[in-house]
Specification:
Helix content is 0%, strand content 46%. It has 105 residues and is mainly β. It has a single domain, classed as Immunoglobulin-like, CATH 2.60.40.10. The strands form 2 sheets. Strands 3, 4, 6, 7 and 8 form a 5-stranded antiparallel β-sheet that branches. A 3-stranded antiparallel β-sheet has the order 1-2-5, with no helix packed on it. A hairpin with a 5-residue loop joins strand 3 and strand 4. The mean pLDDT is 92.
Length: 105
């Protein structure tokens, strides 16, 4: 059986928790979409060379994440998208929100 999901509204207010930025990790929080159906979030990291990878995925009631394994004193772009159809194999992402952060020395 196939299910079709509409793209949800994007999450809001992505925030880097400055007091929890270390040499190799970053803590982030965000607010859920104002409306629409969503049931998860995907967190991506964009490396200085432009390569992108998914750092993690969480259920829709989770609004924070710690990204580990980063390089010392390096600037990254962090993106978060809301997902409809989380873990269905047919997920539909929202537009992303993003922030830039530099890890500590």
């Amino acid at each position: 059986m196939l299910f079709f999901f509409a793209a949800p509204n994007p999450p809001r207010n992505l925030d880097i928790i400055e007091s929890e930025v270390t040499a190799t990790s970053v803590s982030i929080t965000w607010d859920p979409p104002l409306s629409g159906v969503y049931d998860g979030f995907s967190i991506s990291v964009i490396e200085p060379d432009g390569s992108k990878y998914v750092a993690g995925r969480v259920r829709g009631n989770v609004l924070e994440y710690v990204i580990d394994g980063l390089k010392v004193d390096t600037e990254y772009d962090i993106e978060v998208v809301a997902l409809a159809g989380y873990n269905s194999g047919q997920e539909c992402p929202s537009d992303h929100i993003s922030e830039t952060v530099t890890t500590g020395e």
